[in-house]
Design brief:
By secondary structure, the protein is mostly helical. Helices cover 69% and strands 0% of the residues. It is globular. 56% of the residues are buried.
Length: 442
């Protein structure tokens, strides 16, 4: 169900053809940037290192190979996602933009053409088997690539003969993709739409099952920490220019009218909230650009490194700027996670903590619906969980924060609902009771 205005307001639109062109230019910009960091030979060699290596959290492709190869991988994966959307004959709307940009982000650390393809084919295999339109499995195919490291781990990380490893990895990826569409539809009731990373929670469950099976056969599945550093200046310049361009596109498309943006800010973002449907394309791009600049500057303010995982977190926030996150609702959970980091055993500048602060925005609908304090508490609780649950899936679920966010929403939302209903009940009682009767009631 898509949450939209009761009365659909009319905003300046952008044709689907122009939307595709914009995102193609977006994808190609990463490919062009690759050659500013490395030579063609270095990029080509590094690209094959990315394709043929395990990819468990946290495997930063910038450090594993080189910056040029990582940016080329991002470009190819973003173009691949656009091709998939095109083949499904789907419209580029808010959820699809989130799906495209989450692939963009995680292509810096964990996703590549080889390990994502079996999962995508599995999701569409489910559509064929159940005779539903491919479009119905599109989001599961895009978001479900969270479990791409499972394919790489079985193929290259367990010491199996290469043909057997590729076979087991591809089959496992296909099975995962096949399971995702039906499970994702049911699990959303668990979090009631207050965690935007619904499929991340599903992938956490599936990843835990697969990891448990592998461990039972004596296979080690562990998280890693391969992280780049020293790229803050060029990466921050690129990001700030890119997100400023998004804001300018938004203002041009909306012709400077911010009514649509105000509509976006008025929404909690609870799944499923398509901001393009609510505020129009221009306002959505404005929101995405502002989120990008804010999250980039916030990471720099905390003294963090702009490495692959942090870039992935930033692009994830930007993508969901079309599908549930806005500049008003992300602040409280981010602050909650930030403040909590000072009371833990982890340094705030640690990449694991930084990406948790970014991905905690999955819980922004809690802040949007229940208020700033609830959002702050959700952010703090999220950080305490996310740094401890990675062992369950051994790092083969890239959306570890989505897994944690689902648990936080499942725990916190029923309590918040009870308080909300209790408060509403008292408000109604106060409205209905005659002041003269208050003594008797007390």
């Amino acid at each position: 169900m898509i949450v939209v205005s009761e009365e659909r307001k009319t905003f300046p639109e952008l044709s689907q053809k122009n939307m595709y062109l914009l995102f193609i230019l977006f994808a190609l910009s990463f490919g062009a940037l690759a050659f500013l960091f490395n030579s063609p030979q270095e990029i080509w060699t590094g690209f094959w290192v990315i394709m043929s290596s395990p990819a468990n959290l946290l495997t930063d492709y910038i450090e594993l190979a080189n910056a040029g190869a990582a940016f080329l991988n991002v470009s190819i994966m973003t173009l691949e996602s656009l091709l998939i959307v095109r083949l499904c004959k789907a419209k580029i709307n808010g959820p699809v933009i989130a799906g495209i940009l989450i692939i963009t982000g995680f292509s810096f650390f964990g996703k590549n053409f080889y390990n994502s393809l079996p999962i995508i084919l599995g999701a569409f295999g489910f559509a064929k088997a159940t005779r539903i339109p491919l479009e119905k499995s599109l989001l599961a195919a895009l978001f479900g690539t969270a479990l791409s490291p499972l394919v790489s781990e079985l193929s290259f990380g367990e010491g199996l003969p290469l043909p057997l490893g590729i076979f087991l990895g591809s089959i496992s990826g296909f099975i995962v993709g096949f399971l995702l569409p039906p499970l994702a539809r049911h699990v959303i009731t668990f979090t009631k739409g207050f965690s935007l990373y619904n499929i991340g929670f599903v992938c956490g469950l599936i990843g835990t099952v697969f990891t448990s099976i592998m461990r039972n056969f004596g296979r080690e599945v562990e998280s890693v920490s391969i992280l780049a550093s020293g790229y803050n200046s060029p990466f921050s310049l690129f990001l700030l220019i890119l997100f400023t361009c998004m804001i300018l596109v938004g203002l041009i498309v909306s012709k400077g009218d911010i009514k649509g943006f105000k509509e976006i800010l008025s929404r909690s973002g609870q799944l499923s909230t398509d901001y393009i449907e609510i505020g129009g394309v221009g306002a959505t791009f404005l929101n995405m650009g502002l989120l990008g600049i804010f999250s980039t500057l916030y990471m720099l303010l905390l003294g963090g490194e702009l490495n692959g995982p942090v870039l992935g977190g930033i692009f994830c926030i930007v993508g969901f700027g079309a599908f549930g996150k806005n500049i008003k609702t992300v602040i409280a959970p981010m602050l909650g996670a930030t403040i909590m980091s000072y009371f833990t055993l982890y340094e705030t500048q640690d990449t694991n903590v930084l990406i948790s602060i970014l991905f905690v925005t999955a819980l922004s609908p809690i802040a949007g619906h229940y208020g700033t304090i609830a959002g702050f508490i959700a952010g703090a609780l999220h950080l305490t969980l996310v740094v401890n649950i990675g062992f369950l899936h051994g790092g083969i679920n890239l959306y570890n924060n989505g897994f944690a966010a689902g648990l936080v929403a499942a725990i916190l939302v029923p309590f918040l609902e009870a308080l909300h209903y209790h408060k509403v009940g008292h408000e109604r009682l106060d409205q209905e009771v005659n002041p003269a009767d208050e003594v008797e009631l007390s």
